[in-house]
Amino acid sequence: MAEETGEPSLTVDELAARAGVTVRTVRFYGTRGLLPPPEIGPRRVGRYGPGHLSRLALIEELQHQGLTLAAIERYLNRLPEGLSAQDLAIHRALVASWTPDQAEDTSREELERRAGRPLTEEDVDRLAAMDVLRRDGAGGFRVDPGLLHLGVRLLDVPIAPETILAARTVLLDHARATARELSRLFRDEVETRTPDVAAMKSLSAHMQPLVIQALVTAFQRSLNEELRAAYEDAGRV
To answer: How buried is 103 (Cβ within 10 angstroms: 0-12 exposed, 13-18 middle, 19+ buried)?
Structure first.
């Protein structure tokens, strides 16, 4: 598993706290081969990085889906070599995308423990803009644990909350338009064969993961092309 740029910096205790699991769970996953071994640093202390955190989130999501450890091991073994933390996060999002949200009620203290850092009010506002969390009105939060560590990493990127909100609006608008058009296509397909609501639901259940994978892949390629073009244009100036 490829780590992100920079040295792995989390101890096993810090990794467990950030992932919301116990140290015993981390070590158990390691013995089962579900989690790659840490990088051994000075004084023989194991250090973990973003890839370990993303893989733990994926494992936890697969467990929420009801997969056994043996099934999770088979799933992970089929993943391509060298996946980054972002790649693993995308896999986690794909697994979770057709199931109910797994948001958790969290106190400010627990939120900061999971984040691995103190959070300012601006930090919380930015996480809320990324839809990582919502304030519950009583001083606590509803948090998506699978997105939290990615959102925290984005806090160090100099992007204003207004820009994040604008980007989210663009994504949601286009996602809704795409969903409406795909729904119309599927409905037309079913109605030409048999006007059956059960058939429509069955088709949706089978197509949803495939459609999501196709959308993510198409978006990644399109974004890379747009960024490449932007870099080339900037280089000509």
So the answer is: middle
